[in-house]
Amino acid sequence: MSQLKETIESSMKNFSNREKSVGSTKISEVGFVESIVGDIIEIKGLSDVKVDEIVEIKDRKCFVMSLSEETVKAVVLTDGEAIKSGDKAYRTNELASVPVGDSILGRVVDPLGNPLDGKELEKFTTKYLIEKEAAGIMEREGVEVPFQTGIKAVDSIIPIGRGQRELILGDRQTGKTAIALDAIINQKDTGVISVYCAIGQKASSIANMIETLKKHDAFKNVVIVVSTGDSPSGQQFLAPYSATAIGEYFMDKGKDVVCVYDNLTEHAKAYRQVALYLKRPPGREAYPGDIFYLHSRLLERASNLKGKGSLTALPICETQGENVSAYIPTNLISITDGQIMLSNNRFQKGFLPAINIGISVSRVGSNAQLPVYKKLSGDLKNSYAQFEELESFTKFGVQVDAATKKILDRGARVREILKQDQLKPMSVGDQTISMYMIISGLADTVSLENLEAAEELLIKTVRDKMSEEIEALEKGAKFTDEIEKKLYNLMEKTLLKAGYISKDEDK
Would you put residue 439 in left (φ > 0), alpha (ψ -120 to 50) or beta? Predict the structure, then answer.
């Protein structure tokens, strides 16, 4: 009897541990499809399978998301229409991963690393897990290096540091993607690698963005991870994690990386669809209870690592009616280190970028600002804050005294100077000249209509006459009294000569 028992146990062990090959994939267990609901495949017979493991059914990859006593549930990552009940499911013993390598730069891939740009992708020997635990506190360093977006309103008032998580949120069509796109273009000569993750977007919009990057010679250091609105919900769910894994590859090589997630509202919707098919109980706004963990475990992977590089996260979130108290915006605001809020009202009035400076904030970036920004941006922000507070009263025809009028005039010029055309990021030096033009008071008597022309003239003149000082400031030199005096005199002389101000007005 004991011999029979040993024989049966040995046979069962050999059966469960057997390995076969199906195509190029080694499998250790075979199950069968029991049912299909939406993009969710319920499989019976894979007793040892793990969560996050890839299972193959008819050459279709499926991602295991739920385990029960007798069955497992996996979400299909490619076209699953061919899968039928009773089909064999093969365990691969591989957790979901994405192939990575230097030659992935300048390419467009799906969340599994398959090329979407019509070109062959080099077969990489290295793979990074799509789902990975974030680095611990002891592995991280403080955020000390600025991440320059080239956008005056952001770099001066809402600064971002390398390794930070800065949320971009606003209603539809208010310029959220435009801010991220300008930030990517501004990195083309900095050595920063950009990973742009498109979730649930139109293919035509993504194609236009790629053409824009190529036109500005910024595509060579960019990786585009695409999961369009037509893609399976499981693929949309995995897309940002896959993009982060690609970014982590370059970060581990000592590079600085920025990951743009456009947008996490669509990502949350995709996960909600998957979760409801998985029969996870819905909660607030029909989202499952783990929706906060969904995004926190993603964004916690952004960091500045000791002895390695950094990964800066720019998640994008869509609001409705600028309601930042909705479920997903609230979650993301609490996870990130600050937010850039875009206003639909400002957008309609042509104040672009349409940033609501009053409720936008960066909780880390000021620690990483260059010295020249630290000296100038405080006055700029204070002037604008005072202006916004007083402007509402003047709409009712209230008479103001000379001091108040001066605040209103200065604030109006701050708002005007912070306007910036899309796809025209500005260098640190050019932004310094623009900021100083306002806070020095030299532009107080320049009409709003002439402000842009005066700014262009000053940038050209100062770049020509004070090139060494400007280059030093861009590299982190202090904005000394000597430099300030020289800059003021040159600006004053230039504006006087051009007729934008008069000597009497200046005095």
Answer: alpha
